[in-house]
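Same chain as my last thread, 235 residues:
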Amino acid sequence: MGLPIQLETYLRSVSRNLGMTPWIVKIKRFIRGSGPYEERFSQALLAAVRSGDHVWDVGANVGFYTRQISQLVGDTGSVSAFEPVLACYDAITGLNLPNVHAFNLALGDSEGTLPMTVSSDPLSTTNSLVNPRDDAMNQIDVRVTTGNAILNAGSSPAPNLVKVDVEGYEEEVLRGMTAVLARQECRAVFVEVHFGILDARGRRQAPSAIEQLLQSLGFETDWLDGSHISATKPA
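reply #2:
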């Protein structure tokens, strides 16, 4: 990322409070080029998938990555797609991919039911457990469990790779699957870190905590860009 994560987090918060974020984004795009958002993350994620892998897609939405990963893992691999919004879950099951198992639930750090803010477009990528939005249509109750509970119940194979995109709930997801991530076969984790949402939640230090958590579980971390982190275990 270029700066210590604690300093980066502080500067991001200051820039948002001063209304400077749009200008900083423009400057970064000018320096780095105007490639599509998530391009480096997407390339790194898909390049890390191997034939025969078992992959967990946490916050799968309508299955953009689920579909691509399904092709890469092949007949001997599988994708477990976790998506709590029913319309998005239905879109995943509608793909009719035999190596994809969709779960109509969210992952977190405890089991129960939580309200989720759903956009006026139920297929939106910004549905969130923690981020109320101006375009919100309503709130729905969604079932939440932990990755550790999924594994302990035998509901899904232990993953070789995990992708997390959960709109500000990423720390809870990771803390609820520490036993999963600690397993030897889990070699890579890719996370979108939503700095703005975390800051608004009063969780400004969560990006640093996420990085430290992954490192404590044996991963080497790398910030692919300003919002995406990859974590891999040494071969």
